[in-house]
Amino acid sequence: MTTDSHLPDHSAAYRGVRERIIDLVRSEPPERQMMVAPATPDWRVHDVVAHLAGATSDVLAGRLEGVGSDPWTAKQVEDRHDVLTEVVLDEWDTNSVQIDPMVPTFGPASGQIVLDAVTHEHDIRDDLHPPHRGLHRLSQAVAARTSRAASRSVSNTHTRNPSTSA
Hints:
Helices cover about 65% and strands about 5% of the residues. The protein has helices at about 10-25, 30-35, 45-60, 70-80, 85-100, 110-130, 135-160; strands spanning about 35, 40-45. The chain has a two-stranded antiparallel ribbon.
């Protein structure tokens, strides 16, 4: 994959989300890491982190068949079910050395990766702590960018379709 110069580099945003989640979860005792994450009621906080770490491991190993699907994410959680949360956090942090520089090469998917991580951050924070004061601004920026990108995509599709032109 190559970088698209028309897309923002989401590396710093992804790194920031990862660092905040890791710091937050590490600051909690093991029993709180096993609390149910409200927006993903089938997952505990541990499972959310297992998905995030597992996604980076899958990307690095080239396991992309079914990327983003329920079976793909379920396997990430299942593979880390009996692994200590601290070890899963270490896996995610270790993978970041390779993943962070790769984020710009993911093209439009780089924004989706950040959006997924931010969504999970909200879920974990909702469970463990009140919202981070900078998180609201970041969420607004991501939502606005995503909305603008979707609008441009729809607009470009409409203007390129000869059947809609007069």
